[in-house]
């Protein structure tokens, strides 16, 4: 397995396990402490993290992908998860933590943009192969 595939699979596994831990934490420990809206927001972060953990796992198993695109996809998705889900977790729990974190609001769409870039390069890999 190539170095990039190993790195992708490690991060995919990390994102997967932390999504499960955070999902369980949200469902049990935060259920009584957050509002319904805050809990739904937190769960959105967990869902997107898990979706992209699975996406990275799938990417790490691809052997015919353009290596340059694979690296771009990996870094885009990784930063996307950190910015998108990470900011959502903090925004949803900021009040509980006693912290004013509204300044993180613009980080969420930046994370979303990274996710879009990653998926776009995934798509481009197939367009280039066809030609």
From TrEMBL:
Keyword terms of this UniProt record: Membrane, Transmembrane, Transmembrane helix
A GO CC annotation given for this chain: plasma membrane
Its membrane topology: Multi-pass membrane protein
Subcellular location: Membrane
Superkingdom field: Bacteria
UniProt signal peptide: none
Main location: membrane
Transmembrane feature ranges: 48-65, 72-91, 103-124
Keyword flag Transmembrane: yes
Pfam families per UniProt: DUF423
Sequence similarity: Belongs to the UPF0382 family.
Protein name: DUF423 domain-containing protein
Upper lineage: Bacteria, Pseudomonadati, Bacteroidota, Flavobacteriia, Flavobacteriales
């Amino acid at each position: 397995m190539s170095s990039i595939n190993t790195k992708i699979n490690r991060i995919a596994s990390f994102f997967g396990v932390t999504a499960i831990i955070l999902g369980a934490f949200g469902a049990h420990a935060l259920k009584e402490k957050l509002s319904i809206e805050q809990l739904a927001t937190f769960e959105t972060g967990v869902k997107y993290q898990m979706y992209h953990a699975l996406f990275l796992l799938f990417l790490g198993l691809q052997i015919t992908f353009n290596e340059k695109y694979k690296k771009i996809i990996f870094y885009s998705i990784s930063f996307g998860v950190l910015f998108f889900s990470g900011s959502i977790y903090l925004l949803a729990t900021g009040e509980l933590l006693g912290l004013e974190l509204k300044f993180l609001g613009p980080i969420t769409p930046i994370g979303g943009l990274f996710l879009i870039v990653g998926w776009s390069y995934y798509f481009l890999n197939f367009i280039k192969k066809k030609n």
